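Entry 12.
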Amino acid sequence: MEDCIFCKIIKGEIPSKTVYEDEDCKAFCDVNPQAPVHVLVVPKKHVQSLAKAADDEKLLGKLMRTCALVAESLGLADGYRVVTNVGENGCQSVLHLHLHVLGGKKLSERMS
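Predicted 3D structure (tokens):
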């Protein structure tokens, strides 16, 4: 997608602090962190959201495994949260599937 900020980050057109990358996905630090550790894990293939990824179970599994690898590499052994937002009411700010890996402190038990 031409105007997708995450596609531009994946292509190297916009700089990011990459923490992990392979042929299918990239993980980089969020520019507006909501926790001491806040990394975004995105597929290199443009997929709008989790709702639009129903026929790509292999990619979804890879993204989840990547979240665990990133958390381990960043020392989040005490725990972390993985979140994805879907659509306007879910507060999805970028229309490219992305998973937030949050940790580095005790997170709120509230999810809303």
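Annotation: Helices lie at 5-11, 57-73. The chain is about 20% helix and 20% strand.
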